[in-house]
Amino acid sequence: MIPAMGLKIYKEKRDFQKTREPRGVPDKEKRGEKADLVYVVQRHQAARLHYDLRLEEEGVLKSWAVPKEPPVEEGVRRLAVQVEDHPLAYAGFEGTIPEGEYGAGTVKIWDKGSYVPEETMPVKRVFEIKGSVLRGRYCLIKLKSQDPEDHNWLFFKMKKGPA
Ligand code: MN
Hints:
With 163 residues, the chain is mostly beta strands.
């Protein structure tokens, strides 16, 4: 699975006759230049409980599945597995994905707000989260792997600064 390729994989995985998740039309949503970038974490009680971290970038939501609760404080590192891009409209999605469908279970918004990118590279992102639960500077770092199918990152809160 290659996560970074628009909404192709998102659509392939889902049957929109059966799930009420957003269809992802259009593929990339255009928003005002000055609109705040969307940040959301959805608590997803699927076969395994996890938290889906999503950050708006170029009209889609870059997405990571975090198996444990995202850290409010510094000093806690969480595994974050990058998954397929999701449509921007997904940021508002809450509900039940039916049994038998991809991601079957319940989705609830755990935190939402906006974020400000500080550093955006293919293997590292630093950004300020302006949510209700998570606030402050956070980092996502991709773990090195020989396997191109590995999409494991670490997600953690950083110290304040650079001032
Ligand atoms: Mn999920």
